[in-house]
Amino acid sequence: MPGKMREAREVFEKCPQPDSCSYNIMLACYLHNFDVDSALDFFHNMPVRDTASWNTMIWGFAQNVKMRRARDLFLVMPEKNSVSWSAMISGYVKCGDLDMVVELFDVASVKSVVAWTAMFTGYMKFGKIDLA
Questions:
Q1: Which of 80, 85, 127, 128 is a Cys-bridge partner for 123, taking CB atoms 3.0 to 4.6 Å apart?
Q2: Which UniProt keywords apply (predicted)?
């Protein structure tokens, strides 16, 4: 564990009663430092996982192009919102799977501006839209 991450964990451990916000910040720290395995371990050991926790973990996997792991969490996530759908769509754009981008976008129960932008970006990236 790199020095700053170790310090963050030490500060977290000193919290007398960490709340969900504290847990989610710590989870985001692991992912920001590209330590998805420690993040997942931390996630599974959290006493309570709220929608923000699930979204943070899914977004972290997606941004690290670990879409199978992101999808596994997404499928069992208790409540999906626009952030959940956007994270998955953006992740598939990043890894180059336009078919999954379209499939997810079509079935997304919530289509935010972020999801639309990710979809548009995917189409541009793969030459399906030419703005010239």
A1: 128
A2: Repeat
pLDDT of residue 36: 92
Number of domains in the chain: 1
HSE at residue 52, side-chain half, CA atoms within 13 A, is 11
CA angle 120, 124, 75 (to 5 degrees): 50
Chunk the chain into consecutive blocks of 10 residues (it has 132) and report each block's average pLDDT, rounded to whole numbers: 80 92 94 92 95 96 93 96 93 91 90 87 78 60
Q: Are 26 and 49 in contact (CB under 8 A)?
A: no
Q: Residues 97, 67: contact at Cβ < 8 Å?
A: yes
All residues at 6 or more sequence positions from 122 whose CB lies less than 8 Å from its CB, including other chains: 89, 92, 93, 98, 101, 102, 128
What six digits make up the tokens of 20?
Answer: 């969900």
Q: Which domain holds residue 25?
A: 3-125
Give the global pTM: 0.87
54, 48, 63: which is closest to 93 by C-alpha?
63
Decide: helix, strand or coil at residue 118: helix
